[in-house]
Amino acid sequence: MMEALPLAGLKVVEFTHMVMGPSIGLILGDLGADVVKVEPEGGDHTRRLLGSGAGYFPMFNRNKRSICLDLKSEEGKAAARRLIDDADVMIENFRPGALDKLGLGPETFRTTNPRLIYCTAKGFLTGPYGHRTALDEVAQMMGGLAYMTGPPGRPLRAGASVIDIAGGMFGVIGILAALERRHRTGAGGEVKCSLFETTAFFVGQHMAQAAVTGTPAPPMPARISAWAVYDVFETADPDEQLFVGVVSDAQWQAFCGEFALADFAADAGLAANNDRVRQRDRLLPPLRAMFAGMPRDAIVAKLEAIGLPFAPITRPQDLFDDPHLTAAGGLLDVTLENGRKVSLPALPLEIDGRKPGLQRDLPLPGQHDGEVLGEGVAR
Fold first, then answer.
1. In the predicted model, what is the mean pLDDT of residues 142-164?
2. Given pLDDT bands bounded at 50, 70 and 90, which one contains residue 378?
3. pLDDT tens track for 189-238
């Protein structure tokens, strides 16, 4: 753990659930902010999700304190206002207008806490869709990402909550920018991040491709690769596949030399990448046959020796034992509500050579009621 985390002393109050909002608080908390998560009485419903939602709370709520408030009661709303009046940052991802109806919208705090950075995480930024409720999957579908991910005619969402998490990251960027402005002006402000515009930003490269080439970008499974060797290959080991990329002319020569492909190396018609791309149908069958006859570890040793990009096809559960993550502090041990310990990914950052670590374990619902609400009374 670093001795002085970058955001130490920053007070954050979080009214969030699911993924996008909590991811904002997670990042700020990992970087040292004091994040107070305000949950409804009985705890955030995200804690009780099943199936693909069962991992949301454990992944996105470490390094936070928890209090439970009934925001429908006057007492609960008064406690929330006291917390926000004393905060540097407030985060919420309720449906549009919900907190305004409770008297907890940004206008409420312009006078009582003019230094407050008020961050809202929504489905859409300002515009015709602004009133709509959205989810990660909604944004992926209407933002073009699902179309680009699945085969033609079969839109497919990405295999993780990428838009929720990235939208939260943009929220953090906005918060940090607003804090920097506050350092100069003394004034707080409003930050808004969204799912739909985050998705549009992600597929912007495909929009640009269409503009440059005059042809709409096909879904990724049907795309024309920019490189001749950029594929998943079977190996001699059952169920052990490898992705291999050869993305430069120098890498092609190194690849041919390491794998004894003298005929390919000597072929002037294969010397340039674009020429190889045009001949993928000729190149790939013998390469697939070569890899299929070799053990995976032997292929890895050769690729690593010449510095080529490669990757085993890994399942998420395999990462619990990944030697790189486990050796370098890439996983943090948190305690589930049933008392079981689990190692989950740390923030993918190093500052001064060190990763932000675990300051606070996952909180129980309302675990810090007395501590946090007592601080408010004391002030």
1. 97
2. very low
3. 999 999 999 999 999 999 999 999 999 999 999 988 899 999 999 999 99
Whether 347 contacts 330, CB under 8 Å: no
How far, in Å, CA of 79 to CA of 99, rounded? 14
| Residues 229, 255 contacting (CB under 8 angstroms) | yes
pLDDT for the residue 349 = 95
What is the pairing mode between strands 310-312 and 241-246?
A: antiparallel
Contact predicate 215/239, CB 8 Å: no
DSSP 79-131: HHHHHHHT-SEEEE-PSTTHHHHTT-SGGGHHHH-TT-EEEEEESS-SSTTTT
Q: Which CATH number fits domain 11-202+322-378: 3.40.50.10540, 3.30.530.20, 3.30.450.180, 1.20.58.480?
A: 3.40.50.10540
- In this structure, what are the phi and psi dihedrals at residue 68, rounded to the nearest 5 degrees? -115, 130
CATH 3.40.50.10540 residue ranges for the chain: 11-202+322-378
Give me the half-sphere count of Cα atoms (radius 13 Å) on the Cβ side of residue 253: 6
Q: Indicate the CATH number for domain 225-315.
A: 3.30.1540.10
Q: Which residues pair with 241 in a beta bridge?
A: 234
CATH 3.30.1540.10 range(s) for the chain read 225-315
Q: Strand, coil or helix: what is 234?
A: strand
**Residue partners of 179: CB distance under 8 A and separation at least 6:** 10, 88, 89, 117
Three-state DSSP class for residue 75: helix
| The pLDDT of residue 145 is above 70 | yes
Position 352: which residue type? D
